[in-house]
């Protein structure tokens, strides 16, 4: 079964004159780690809202097409039902934290699932540990940093044990080193859950491709409300380079795409050192 199945989805926000999404077709299978990227305003968050059923249930507008998440037709299921199995971490995490302590926010989802108290405690402990914020258990969400709020929001989602998690620009509030460590913890989390017998599917909306390139199994580029590229990350990046699509291709890969044919480079270098040593010892001297 596809975790996400969007068929010819188009959407126009009420009051807007043009479609924000046009004929989106997207199938995502269990266990995939998918990066969705594209220029600001191209419709990435709107796709996430469709997958969560927030569109059309909470955002008025003209919706057409069909959308299924975990086999549920979003038109026939309330957002609350979709949200029990499908979590989203929004661009602004503070909107997602609404109680007086991190612990209460993380417990909120399991409480709503009416789980027994011991299971709620177990899930709170587990989620705080997996995200690495046990020390913030009793902190007020208003008193912690943007990055810590982001982690608290993630913990509040994973405590529900969802099958699908969407991260909408999870690093938007973070400096480069905290961003890298957050992305690493997201994929460590996926690995830990797999070891615990739970396969989760990740959709990450992000501009900072360099942080994700070694983790993702698939990359999608959205432009002006359409999916313009979808596939293996390296192929999609190469194609984006050739077609000059304005996304953040990591600088090392830009150099690689520019020179690979001329220098006979068969695979991308993993570091600047590797590229320089190749150019010095092999390719550049002979072919350059
Ligand atoms: N609630 C809304 N009502 C009307 N128009 C909206 C609404 N939300 C978004 N839009 C418009 O829809 C378009 C796509 O917005 P969306 O937030 O999906 O883009 P995005 O790709 O996530 O951008 P960013 O990278 O800046 O987050 C934009 O032109 C935006 O102004
Ligand atoms: Mg967005």
Strand coverage percent: 15-25%
Q: What is the N-to-C succession of helices and strands?
A: EEEHHEEHEHHHEHEHEEHHHH
The biggest beta sheet is recorded as:
6 strands, mixed
Give the low-pLDDT segments: 284-288
Number of helices: 12
CATH architecture of the largest domain: 3-Layer(aba) Sandwich
Helical fraction equals 40-55%
Average pLDDT level: 91
Number of domains: 2
Bound small molecules, by name, code or SMILES, are: adenosine-5'-triphosphate, magnesium ion
* Counted beta strands: 10
Return the CATH topology of the largest domain. Rossmann fold
Strand line-up across the major sheet: 6-7-8-3-9-10
Radius of gyration (CA) equals: 21 Å
- Span between termini: 49 Å
Structure description:
- The protein contains 12 helices and 10 strands.
- It folds into 2 domains: 2-248, Rossmann fold; 250-288, no CATH class.
- It has 288 residues and is of the alpha/beta class.
- The chain has helices at 44-51, 54-57, 79-83, 102-112, 117-131, 146-158, 176-195, 209-212, 233-242, 251-263, 272-281, 283-287, and strands spanning 2-13, 21-29, 33-37, 61-69, 72-73, 86-89, 164-168, 201-205, 218-223, 226-231.
- Helices cover 41% and strands 22% of the residues.
- The chain is globular, with a radius of gyration of 21 Å.
- A hairpin with a 2-residue loop joins strand 9 (218-223) and strand 10.
- The strands form 2 sheets. It has a 6-stranded mixed β-sheet with strand order 6-7-8-3-9-10, with helices on both faces. Strands 2-1-4-5 form a 4-stranded antiparallel β-sheet.
- Helix 4 packs across helix 5 (117-131), helix 4 runs parallel beside helix 6 (146-158) and helix 5 (117-131) packs across helix 6 (146-158).
């Amino acid at each position: 079964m596809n975790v996400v199945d969007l068929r010819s989805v188009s959407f126009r926000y009420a009051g807007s004159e043009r479609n924000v999404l046009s004929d989106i077709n997207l199938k995502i299978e269990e266990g995939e780690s998918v990066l969705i990227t594209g220029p600001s305003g191209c419709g990435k968050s709107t796709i996430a809202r469709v997958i969560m059923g927030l569109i059309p249930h909470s955002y008025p507008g003209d919706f057409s097409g069909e959308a299924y998440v975990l086999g549920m037709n979003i038109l026939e299921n309330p957002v609350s039902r979709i949200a029990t199995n499908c979590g989203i971490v929004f661009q602004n995490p503070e909107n997602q934290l609404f109680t007086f302590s991190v612990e209460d926010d993380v417990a909120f989802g399991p409480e709503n699932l009416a789980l027994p108290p011991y299971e709620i405690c177990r899930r709170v402990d587990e989620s705080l540990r997996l995200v690495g914020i046990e020390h913030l258990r009793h902190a007020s969400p208003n008193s912690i940093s943007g990055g810590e709020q982001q982690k608290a929001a993630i913990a509040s989602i994973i405590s529900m044990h969802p099958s699908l998690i969407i991260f909408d620009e999870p690093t938007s509030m973070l400096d480069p080193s905290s961003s890298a460590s957050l992305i690493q913890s997201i994929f460590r989390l996926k690995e830990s859950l797999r070891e615990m017998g739970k396969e989760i599917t990740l959709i990450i909306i992000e501009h900072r491709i360099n942080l994700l390139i070694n983790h993702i199994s698939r990359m999608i580029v959205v432009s002006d409300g359409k999916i313009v590229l979808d596939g293996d990350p390296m192929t999609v990046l190469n194609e984006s380079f050739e077609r000059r699509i304005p996304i953040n291709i990591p600088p090392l890969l830009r150099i690689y795409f520019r020179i690979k044919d001329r220098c006979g480079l068969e695979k991308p270098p993993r570091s600047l050192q590797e590229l320089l040593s190749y150019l010095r010892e092999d390719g550049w001297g002979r072919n350059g």
